Amino acid sequence: MAEREKRAERYGIDPEQWTNPSDPSNAATPHRTDVAPGLGKSSAYSDSIAVRERDRPAQAGEEPGAIAEWERAREPAPTYRRGPKNYQRSDDRIKEDIYDKLTRDHRINAEEVVLEVSAGVVTLLGSVAHRQMKHWIEDIAADCPGVKDVENKLRVAITATGPT
Questions:
Q1: Nearest-CA neighbor of 117 among 85, 93, 100, 139?
Q2: pTM of the full predicted structure?
Q3: Side-chain half-sphere of 111: how many Cα atoms within 13 Å?
Q4: How many domains would you assign to the chain?
């Protein structure tokens, strides 16, 4: 079996579609364009690159289908947004956001939970069914914008389970 057929079998490609562009004997044959460089088989990632390269109009002085540096630089860098310097969310708004998040979380039964918010400090009072729920509620409160600290005073309800 020729080397070309071995590669075709290994990478799952049609040997008639694949040529080496640097090989002088294949100079007139275009290389395979539906595979991104270095990825071997076609994938969702390589397909999206091929579509993006193929459909984009060529810029002055570049080959059609090439990705320009400015296009790579357009990808947004991760940023952390902050409000104005002296902005502070109101305690009522923080309290409402936490109650909404607790209500929407299917893991949490917050019937016996009471929140108190003072100057951005959240105090959790009441009882919950198990220790993990106590930590889930604390995490939800801590992740809410405007919360400076969380005082977790939740108690785990002790239920009597056993043979009767």
A1: 93
A2: 0.50
A3: 3
A4: 2
